[in-house]
Structure formats: structure tokens, C-alpha cells
């Protein structure tokens, strides 16, 4: 009778990012609504003019700008007293750089401008690279599962294991075996700190980690003879 060997294979691939998605917020707080709108509109137009210049120079992959929003509220001071009405404005802009050499100087300069705040930088891959690296991780995860099954079979004095089932993590058919934690096939774009971002114009792209995991079931029998 064949012995059932169930394993989980995991793997990861590390790759340098190709794109940097910069998120900026434009906004002010003013007691006068018209003043708040005028300041924000000027700052927004200056920023978008620079973005269009970057696009024309071929430094960007894509960019988008959200609508300018305005709302009013009455804040409280530290004594709990309600203060006069304040008008708040906000507009988000995302700029995806493909020319990472232009990133540091530009971000440092524009984030020091009036009414502009840097929310963060998201390191990314192009879709073609993401798919290629994901496939590498998936293949390596399967190889890891096969290697584990062979080790277990050899430890039991069995012959070479034969694969009978392979699935994304958590999708194997039910068997009378201890339940495994659910995770599914993962293509995690985890950021690995490759040195950290420095001050000023120094930006260190974070290495991206692409992960994959699979579950596999094998049959192995006692060696003949």
C-alpha cells in the first residue's frame, strides 16, 4: 500500500523595482474658503505643470490627479473650546516614475513646496516583469515541494515519490490529515529594505520580494526487492 506524503513548497524571488509610485497631497487650512481654494488651485497647477513636463521627457509611466475637495469644520483647542470655522482643501496626485534617476531630486524639491506633502513611495514592477518573476517563484515552490517529498520518502525507506495532487495553498481536496494553515498561492510584493531612503536627494529603492507557496500530495511505496 502506498504511503501518502503531503508537503508545502515555498519560494521567493528578489528583484529590483522598475517603477516608483509617488503619492502627494495638496491641501491647506484657511479661515476663508476662497483663500483656501485659491492657494490650493495655484499649488495644484504648479505641480501638474511639472508632472506634464516629466511626462513629455519620458520619465513617467503614468500619473493621475484627484479632484480638488473642500470642506469646513470647527476645531477645538486644548481647553475644549470650539474655535472659528476652518476651511480645508485636499487633492491627491499619484506619479509613477519609470526613470528612477529623476525621482529623488524631483520629490525632494516639490515636497518642500507650498501646500504639498509627500505621502509615500510605492516601489513596483512592470506587469511583464511581475508575471515573469511570479512564474520563477511558482516553479521554485514546486521544486521545493518535490525535494521535501523525496527527503521524507527516503527517511521512511520508500522509493521515489510520485506526485498525485498539486494545488495553491489551501486548495487540496479534503483528506483525513491534520489541517494546514490557509494561505493560498501568494504573489507577495513585500518591500525588503535594501538600505533605506536617505535625506535630501538620496532614495534607495526597496528590493521587492515575490513569494509563492503550493501544497502537494505524493504517493511513495516500499522499494521492490
Which key phrases capture this entry?
225 residues; alpha+beta; Translation Initiation Factor IF3; Alpha-Beta Plaits; six-stranded antiparallel β-sheet; four-stranded antiparallel β-sheet; 10 strands; 27% helix
CATH class of the largest domain: Alpha Beta
Uncertain parts: 177-201
What's the gyration radius in Å? Answer: 27 Å
CATH architecture of the largest domain: 2-Layer Sandwich
Main beta-sheet annotation: 6 strands, antiparallel
Oligomer: single chain
Spatial gap, N to C terminus: 15 Å
The helix fraction, in percent, is 25-40%
Strand content: 35-45%
Q: Helix count, per DSSP? A: 3
Q: What is the CATH homologous superfamily assignment of the largest domain? A: Protein of unknown function (DUF541), domain 1
What is the chain-wise order of helices and strands?
Answer: EEEHEEEHEHEEE
Counting structural domains, the number is: 2
Instruction: Let me know the number of strands.
Output: 10
Assign an overall shape: elongated
CATH fold label of the largest domain: Translation Initiation Factor IF3
Mean pLDDT: 86
- The structural class is alpha+beta
